[in-house]
Specification:
The structure is a single chain. It contains three helices and no strands. It has 104 residues and is an all-alpha fold. The protein has two domains: 36 residues; 65 residues. The longest helix has 35 residues. The termini are far apart. Keywords: Membrane, Transmembrane, Transmembrane helix. It comes from Lacrimispora amygdalina. InterPro entries: MFS_trans_sf.
Length: 104
């Protein structure tokens, strides 16, 4: 039984490492994509806006999720985050598709 716990913890540790690396690479890629269509004269302002929107999400969503999880359970909190992630992906995908077609 102890061996299985060590194997589980080892796999969890490796999975956590892979998820963190994936998130770092994805954030760098998304930052580059967000800035790709911005004129050079506006890049600083666009980057500031991008970081501000990101910071709002980093501040607001943990508080909302914590309140929701304490009232309705952790599963509900995770499901809400998953729903918002899928919604964000869908909006981004549609915008990216239309941006590639029109170039703006």
């Amino acid at each position: 039984m102890v061996l299985m716990e060590h194997i589980y913890l080892g796999l969890t540790d490796h999975l956590s490492f892979a998820v963190k690396r994936h998130r770092e690479i994805l954030f760098s890629y998304l930052t580059c994509e967000a800035m790709s269509g911005v004129p050079a004269s506006c890049k600083a302002t666009a980057m500031g806006f991008f970081q501000a929107v990101y910071a709002v999400g980093m501040t607001v969503f943990p508080a909302i999720t914590g309140a929701l999880a304490s009232k309705m359970g952790m599963r509900t909190g995770y499901m809400m985050l998953a729903a918002f992630s899928l919604l964000g992906w869908g909006v981004s995908f549609q915008h990216y598709k239309s941006w590639k077609k029109t170039g703006a």
